[in-house]
Amino acid sequence: MKSYLKMSKEELASEIEALRKEYKKYQSLELELDMSRGKPCREQLDLSMGLMDALNSDADLSCEDGTDCRNYGVLDGIHEAKVLIGDMMENNPDNILIYGNSSLNVMYDQIARSFTHGVMGNTPWCKLDKIKWLCPVPGYDRHFGITEYFGIEMIPVPMSVNGPDMDMVEKLVASDEAIKGIWCVPKYSNPQGYSYNDETVRRFARLKPAAKDFRIYWDNAYGIHHLYDDHQDYLIEILAECKRAGNPDLVYKFSSTSKITFPGSGIAAIATSANNLEDIRLQLTHQTIGHDKVNQLRHVRFFGDIHGMVEHMRKHADIIRPKFEAVEKIFDENLKGLEIAEWTKPNGGYFISFDGLEGTAKLIVDRAKKAGVKLTPAGSTWPLHKDPKDNNIRIAPTYPTLEDLKTAAKLFTVCVRLVSAEKIYENFGKNEKVEEKKKEVKKA
Ligand SMILES: Cc1ncc(COP(=O)(O)O)c(C=O)c1O
């Protein structure tokens, strides 16, 4: 396909005319499709229906150590759940604290407690003038939503295929005591599907923060969410690496079974150093007597062990891999070579990150909406919803059926082409004109 950037004005005009006709055809279909949120689809949820049979009224609800799961207590979570989640997170059960049904909730709590009571004896953040946070971009909108809610100043840090710009991270963290944290989705990142390389993880573990209460918020939400058996990303385990580097308390690691079993009815956990855990427990005792142990037991009985969980993830992959591949194929067929867009091809996770021409993301999302396809709002992948280039869109292929997804992806590419062609057409010759003007001014 001929690059839009190399087309004459006439060629562009006829391309726009054809695309408008195609767009109208889609509009007449009265579609109602949703590619906006990273939710598992129905078939994926069906995979975990066995959870409902794992326990019944005849079941013995005692743990291996005799604890009756029906009753109060066990703040940390039951041991067998710590073993299972420990294997999932690649951490020792002693470093794990099991929470409730959402890891985002755990992250929110960590920040809330840091504000009200401080981190390991340091001044509570509410008593400080300013708190700042590093935000790799594009990133996860709900992370940015938490830091925004607490009035934290967010500093965008560019992401590359290897992770955040570590020169920038090291420099900022070492020089500014107001910087207290960084959001990281280190494996199959939201939205790019990138995984941090070894050097990035090693540099994270060796950060020298000016603030003693700086913590890396390592949200490994997609740790075992591979799309392929043979092409899997590998991530160095950060807790062990921090320990090796002599920085054992530097990181809070988060995860959950949200996209393994039922989002909202799974189990979430934090893995961190003994010192951090002690600090968390001190505060947590005032918050709860213990989380849902019956659900913890249900998950353990359903999976058996980590091998059961890995096998289960293969079934998820079998359902969603064709969806990712369908989107990639449609993007390749309809956008490749036009020089108007780039997109990621992840080996796992839940998203594809799409970059269009500058100043087109909002228009593309709007056009898609008017033809019945809901996308994540443009700007969501940036703090305060402010994408300075207005060109990034997060694509979430998992939720729609394969057929719906194909239709949505095709319409999306029509919107991308139409908006981009119109933009190039509008600006046609402007650059040349600016150059001519400059020459005239010079001559004068
Ligand atoms: C990176 C990341 N972290 C956390 C979550 C939410 O996890 P939970 O359901 O455990 O709160 C999501 C959901 O999309 C996510 O993408």
According to DSSP, the number of beta strands is 13
Number of domains: 2
Uncertain residue segments? none
Quick one: biggest sheet? 8 strands, mixed
- Bound chemical compounds: pyridoxal-5'-phosphate
Through-space gap between termini: 43 Å
Order of strands, main sheet, comes to: 2-9-8-7-6-3-4-5
Q: In DSSP terms, counting alpha (H) and pi (I) runs of 4 or more, how many helices?
A: 15
What does the average pLDDT come to?
A: 96
Q: What fraction strand?
A: 5-15%
CATH topology of the largest domain, what is it called? Aspartate Aminotransferase, domain 2
> Order of helices and strands, N to C?
HEHHHEHEHEEHEHEHEEHHHEEHEEHH
Structural class: alpha/beta
CATH class of the largest domain equals: Alpha Beta
**What characteristic shape results from the CA principal axes?**
globular
Helix share of residues?
40-55%
Structure, described:
The protein is an alpha/beta fold and 444 residues long. It has two domains: 4-44 and 311-442, Aspartate Aminotransferase, domain 1, CATH 3.90.1150.10; 61-304, Type I PLP-dependent aspartate aminotransferase-like (Major domain) (Aspartate Aminotransferase, domain 2, 3-Layer(aba) Sandwich), CATH 3.40.640.10. Helix content is 43%, strand content 13%. The protein contains 15 helices and 13 strands. It has helices at residues 9-28, 42-46, 51-54, 79-89, 103-117, 141-149, 166-175, 198-205, 238-244, 274-284, 293-303, 306-335, 361-370, 402-426, 430-443, and strands at residues 33-35, 96-98, 132-137, 153-160, 163-164, 179-184, 215-219, 251-256, 268-271, 341-343, 352-356, 373-375, 392-395. The chain has an eight-stranded mixed sheet with strand order 2-9-8-7-6-3-4-5, sandwiched between helices. The protein has a three-stranded antiparallel sheet with strand order 10-11-13, with helices on one face. Strand 10 (341-343) and strand 11 form a beta hairpin. Helix 1 packs antiparallel against helix 14 (402-426), helix 5 packs parallel to helix 6 (141-149) and helix 12 (306-335) crosses helix 14 (402-426). The longest helix has 30 residues, at 306-335. The chain starts with 8 loop residues before the first helix and ends with a helix. Residues 38, 102-104, 140, 185, 190, 219, 221, 256, 258, 263, 268 line the site of pyridoxal-5'-phosphate (PLP). Pyridoxal-5'-phosphate (PLP) binds at residues 38, 102-104, 140, 185, 190, 219, 221, 256, 258, 263, 268.
